[in-house]
Amino acid sequence: MIVATFCGCLLLANVAATKLIQVGPEWTPLGLHLLPLVFDGGALLFPVTYILGDVLAEVYGFRQAQRAIVTGFILSAVAALSFWAVDSAPPAADWENQAAWHAVLGFVPRICAASLVGYLVGQLINARVLVWLRDRARPGSLWSRLLGSTVAGGAADTILFCGISYIGVVGFGTLANYIVVGYAYKLGVEAVLLPVTMRVIRFVKRKEGVTV
Prior knowledge:
This protein is mostly helical. The protein has a single domain (about 1-210), classed as Arp2/3 complex 21 kDa subunit ARPC3, CATH 1.10.1760. Helix content is about 70%, strand content about 5%. It is built from 8 helices and 2 strands; from the N terminus they run αββααααααα. The chain has a two-stranded antiparallel ribbon. Helix 1 (about 1-15) runs parallel beside helix 3 (about 60-90). The radius of gyration is 19 Å and the shape is globular.
């Protein structure tokens, strides 16, 4: 169930990420685009994949988490190829939505390519760091390794995903804003949901009989 939810959230986030969202008034002190905040629709669900990745790595170890990450990678690649094939296929003569389809879902293969690179690198770093910290953990340090792993993995994922997705599509100021906001958002969601994540980890450990 954890792996299925993990993969489902990843696929949905890749489609939602085709839309950039802008919030707040214009504010560019010294030429820096601090406001409005820019983020993509995938931000609503993608942080959940990091939380579930933490659960997998903490409970089952790096090798099992790696298998889940590779499964998500393969499904994302299948999704990208499927959207590309459908977008490339000739539309029916009386179907008038080809331009709308191409504008949104035709961009998904690029989003998925960016996601594949960022996700694979970020999630593997996240899992590796979490397990490394777990193996050297002191009692009561679960919260610190959950946050520490996200700090490392989230940075790699955000820079790679945002850069590959939108470099050349939006201006440098908007892109920098997008990267900073996305990274801060991921860390913020992880911190806010930390009590929930810790309870889920303890629950799954009890179910699996894991004592580490």
